[in-house]
Specification:
With 285 residues, this protein is mostly beta strands. The chain is built from 2 helices and 18 strands. The longest helix is centred in the first third of the chain and has 14 residues.
C-alpha cells in the first residue's frame, strides 16, 4: 500500500482547485528508515545511492499490468517500475536502517512512499527492485473512477498531459456506481447536473474554511464552498442513493462517486435537492 504525503495531498488538492500541477521530470527514489505524512529519514551509508527515474511511459507501467508502456486503460489503479532500480552495495558497516519504506521525491519534497519489510542492508549486500516490484497505488478504494485514476497515474508517474476540467459537475443517482460504471441519473423532472468551479473560490483548501488560500492542511480534503442546488423536481425521480462528480454538464467522464449520507426520495413538487456548503468532499490520501 502506498501513501501520499501532506505535500502531495496539498498539490493535488490545489490542482483540483484550478492551480495546475508541476512536477520534476524525474522522481528521485530513496530508501527510508522513518516516514510519515510530514517527515522522513533517508537511508545513509557507504555505497548507497538514490536513483533518479524519469517520469515516462517507458519507466512506469500502465494500470493494465506490469511492464506496460502504453497509456493506462486498466482497472488496477496501480503502476510499477519497468526497469531495475539499483541502490548499490553496502559498504563498511552496512547502511543505516532498517529500511521500512521507499519514497519518491519531487526534487527535495517527498511526494509518496510505499512500505517495505524493514530490511537492514549489511556490508557487502546489494539492494535493488526488479521490474514490477516497486508498486504504487492511486485511488484503489471506491470513490475515484478508473478513468480518473488512469489519467492521474499517467500524469503523475508517466508525464502524460492531462488538464483538470474548468468545472466539476455534481450529480445524484438512483443506482450504485462503481469505479468503472456510473450510476443511473434521473432522466425526468427537470433534473440537471450542477457546476462547481475548479477554482480557489469553488473549493475549500485542505486546512478548511470558506477561504481562497492555498492548501496547507494535513487531511487532504477539499469541499464545495457554496451550496449546490438542483432544480425543483417537476416529476418523481426515484430514490437518490449516491452522488457523483463529472467533468461535463452532460455526457463526459465520471470522476468521483460516493454513497449519500442517507437515501432521499425525490418527488414532484418537493424541495430542490441541495448539497450544503462543504458537504461534497474530495479527499486525497
Amino acid at each position: 500500500m502506498s501513501h501520499l504525503t501532506n505535500y502531495a495531498e496539498n498539490a493535488l488538492a490545489d490542482m483540483a482547485r484550478g492551480e495546475g500541477l508541476i512536477l520534476s521530470s524525474s522522481w528521485t527514489i530513496h530508501l527510508l528508515t522513518a516516514v510519515s505524512d510530514s517527515a522522513h529519514t533517508k537511508v545513509t551509508g557507504t555505497g548507497y545511492a538514490p536513483v533518479d527515474v524519469l517520469r515516462s511511459l517507458a519507466e512506469w507501467a500502465g494500470t493494465q499490468g506490469a511492464g506496460t508502456t502504453l497509456a493506462s486503460i486498466g482497472t488496477s489503479h496501480r503502476t510499477s517500475n519497468n526497469s531495475v532500480i539499483d541502490f548499490g552495495t553496502g559498504g563498511a558497516g552496512g547502511w543505516s536502517g532498517p529500511a521500512i519504506a521507499v519514497g519518491l521525491f519531487d526534487g527535495t519534497e517527498l511526494f509518496t512512499w510505499a512500505n517495505m519489510d524493514g530490511r537492514t542492508i549489511l556490508e557487502g549486500e546489494a539492494f535493488s527492485f526488479d521490474p514490477g516490484t516497486l508498486i504504487f497505488d492511486f485511488g484503489v478504494t471506491g470513490g475515484m473512477s478508473d478513468y480518473l485514476s488512469n489519467a492521474l497515474i499517467d500524469l503523475i508517474w508517466r508525464a502524460q498531459a492531462y488538464s483538470w476540467p474548468a468545472n466539476l459537475y455534481a450529480a445524484y443517482t438512483t443506482t450504485t456506481p462503481t469505479n468503472a460504471t456510473p450510476g443511473l441519473e434521473p432522466g425526468v423532472g427537470g433534473y440537471a447536473r450542477q457546476a462547481i468551479a475548479s477554482s480557489l473560490s469553488g473549493w475549500t483548501p485542505t486546512q478548511g474554511g470558506l477561504v481562497t488560500d492555498a492548501s496547507s492542511g494535513t487531511g487532504g480534503r477539499i469541499g464545495n464552498q457554496a451550496a449546490v442546488v438542483f432544480p425543483e423536481p417537476t416529476a418523481n425521480q426515484g430514490v437518490a442513493t449516491h452522488g457523483e462528480l463529472w467533468d461535463a454538464a452532460a455526457g463526459g467522464n465520471m470522476m468521483f462517486w460516493r454513497a449519500l449520507a442517507g437515501a432521499k426520495s425525490i418527488v414532484a413538487g418537493g424541495p430542490p435537492p441541495t448539497f450544503a456548503s462543504d458537504s461534497i468532499g474530495i479527499t486525497w490520501a
